[in-house]
Amino acid sequence: xxxxxxxxxxxxxxxxxxxxxxxxxxxxxxxxxxxAHGLARVARWNGxxxxxxxxxxxxxxxxxxxxxxxxxxxxxxADRLAxxxxxxxxxxxxxxxxxxxxxxxxxxxxxxxxxxxxxHLRFGLPAERPAALTRAIKAADKIxxxxxxxxxxxxxxxxxxSFFGRPRGVDPARLxxxxxxxxxxxxxxxxxxxQLTAAMGGAALSA
Length: 207
What we know:
This is Metal dependent phosphohydrolase. By secondary structure, the protein is mostly helical.
């Protein structure tokens, strides 16, 4: 058996034609079209949500960017872009629910971290987020998760509060919680990305 035949495949071919190495991801192999396509087809909550369509990670990402902006209206476009991309590695590794992540352990987080660093570099962001920005994105993520849990995933308010905290500072009536069809989720993710990169003065980053 040849050495190549014995080695496990750790890369994925994307529809753009890129081949992304999960062990050592390169920013040069990352395209926003692949991210949007993949995230629009990955279901939050393992698909256990109400509605005719899955609530996709693409829609969740747009929601988190919107919540982060409501919480911090002066948040610069680059930080809002980081919020939009906070779950971007899931276009490759899928959306594992938190209980399963806890079972898998640290290796999952290491792969996720390498992917997120490469994604950040591809789109003009620091490889590692500042701690304050990470906290801001996590706060927005928990607010989004609370409302997704109670409106779509069958959680009661008390149960959701025990996992995600009680949401404050955002009117849930302003949130887009009706699951979008796949094509719409993909396009709205791309639209938000385009608006933010243009505001950063780097529309070429989307090429």
